[in-house]
Amino acid sequence: MHLGFRRALLGLVFILASLTAFGQPVAWQHSIEYSTFPKLTRDPSGNLFFVSRESALGTRILRVQKISPVGALIWSRVAVQHVGGAADEQYNVRRVIYAHNNVYILFQRRLGGGSGAHVQSLIRKVDPSDGTPSSVFGSTIELEGMTSYNNGIIVAGTTGTLARVFRINLSNVATSNLQMNNFSKVDDVVGLPDGTCFVAASRSGGTVSMIKVNADDSFVAYDFDNATRTEEQMNQIVLDSAANRVYGMGSGYFNGLQTDLDVMLYAMNTDGTNQVSNGAGGSTLEYPGAISVVPNDGIIISFFSDSQNPDATTVRRLSSGLGTMWNTHIFDAVQGFKRSHAFDADGNLLVLDPAFTGGNTYIRVTKKAISNGATLLTTLHPFFLPETLDLLSDAAGNYFCTVNQSYSTFLFRLQPAMLSYSANTVPGGGTITATVTLAQAATADQVWTLASANPSAASVPANVTVPNGATTATFDITTTPVTANANIGISARYHGFIMQKTLTLLTPTVSTLSITPNVVIGGVNTAGLVTIGGAAPAGGKTVNLASSNTAAATVPASVVVPAGTTQFGFGITTYGVTANRGVVITATTGAISRTAFFAVNAPSLLSVAMNPSTVKGGLQSQMTVTLDGVAPTGGRSVVIFSGAPGIVFAPASITVLAGNTSASQNLTTAAVTASTNVLIFATRSGIYKTTTITVTP
């Protein structure tokens, strides 16, 4: 099925497809509206530099964004805005590289909205720290290729029938300006650190060349002419410096047939020897995609082929002599040139292409085993007619993709699976559930290798299997108590894709504090119970204690919850108070505190008694007053009244000394002629107690 029919069929699904942009398997996404021609590069720290042009009537804008590997936008800068010219002039971003601690951008001013006649080529250098741009080079020469070397950058292009190469030093000065005659097009350039470079060039009449430009500016053009192909063009060139071999990729028409476009391959040693070329395809329509070097072991190419049914992206590994080592097809591909390569952490190949399957279009990353081309993983993400596909991968096998879609550009990180936890932050000592979730159902059992960065604190099984046809698998993470908060990376790996997620283990902190009983009379001790949110680690967990009123109640400075337990009780000592007092006890671990309130009440009069309770007049009897708690500092006085002050002589008051609960005093009686019952009153703070003494003749 060809692209024109797909456009008609899928025109109505644009909004729906766009709304899915943040769904699985997208880890994060950035987008710029009214923007096209996105390009991508990365610095040694993994930060991404996302370059695109923004379109507006009569205005040209070149925008650069710096985005961290986890998707955080660090800065966004306009590198160039509005250069005078025709109303339909726009920028066309050609190359973006990171070199000499700067981002270099090669872009063109072209008519026809950026796709028409060439007007000017420009190079900007952007400071990666803050996005500050500076001008490097500008020319009416149509520059297409850019690479770096030890002393600067090299750019290549054409003007008329001249192939042009410029070396530009770190001070933005052109130190070489080479002209090479009889070339119709220059598309790409690669270089060695010493400044030697190789240019992919085309001649009129169906001949292509690899031009070797030496460091001393001498040059040699090595021509390739396949008699059965016409209008050949070499539009990509790669260098295997380890094998001293250069490879080119392009296309040509078989025997001049416009309906038979074949992918063409070219190779030679860096000294120009051992030249070889062949047609990679031989079908009715093929569109060159991407070419990548397997160091010291040939190349891998991808291209669209409509000779397969359904249409396919053909992926082929070739030896240094361009002999086929393996050949595979990724079906349901969309017609066109848009293919990109990268490699995962195990050196397996990643192929990014546009796909059409199940009535929808997608961007697709297919992982191929480098040894035999077997498909290891496939990741699909819905996108309406994606264009301008670029692909980068990191050491963990994450995929960073750029896509152009109907005047919007997108940068996102795709991943074939995600790792999640039932809880991301937990106290050490428990078990949590982890889940591996695939972007697409497994087509065979997938055994994911598991690892913990700290197995003594968080242990995992050796592996977990996602069964054929399933999308998820779970496993347990068993944790142990920790003495300090710890961030532990758990990783799951399958065929060069490594996903890692941090699990935070918390040292247990105090969760509750209780006091029982919570109302006591001063001098009566009570008890506290501290509970921590998880089992105490080896050596126990220290909890600091404090009282808000040490005159009323004191606690130990700290207690230790024994290892493996979650609670510990402690005693609270109270003291006599002159008035009821509220006390707050605080338990603290680190920055976490819990409090509990209780009352320490002043002692009240409990009783008054006479001993003996019957006495002969003229003798003494001992009166004892008793409090319901210890007397505070300064003692506790009790007012005394005699019901017959002429018979029983009572003092006005009696004092219970500090720290005591009772006080006694002898009362003298008078002689009586008949037995007389005398009531003795004792009172304190509204509390009245009485007793009776009998005085006999």
* Count of helical stretches: 2
- Which percent bin holds the helix content? under 10%
Structural Rg: 44 Å
Strand fraction equals over 45%
Distance between termini?
A: 132 Å
- Strand order within the widest sheet? 34-41-40-36-38
| Low confidence ranges | 1-23
Structural class: mainly beta
Instruction: Report the mean per-residue pLDDT as an integer.
Output: 90
Q: What shape does the CA trace take?
A: elongated
What is this structure, in a nutshell?
The chain is an all-beta fold and 697 residues long. The protein is built from two helices and 59 strands. A hairpin with a 5-residue loop joins strand 22 (286-293) and strand 23 (299-305).
Task: Describe the fold and architecture.
The protein is mainly beta. The protein is 2% helix and 61% strand. It has 2 helices and 59 strands. Strands 34-41-40-36-38 form a 5-stranded mixed beta sheet, with no helix packed on it. A 5-stranded mixed beta sheet has the order 43-50-49-45-47, with no helix packed on it. Strand 28 (360-368) and strand 29 form a beta hairpin. The longest helix has 8 residues, at 3-10. Mean pLDDT is 90; it is low at 1-23.
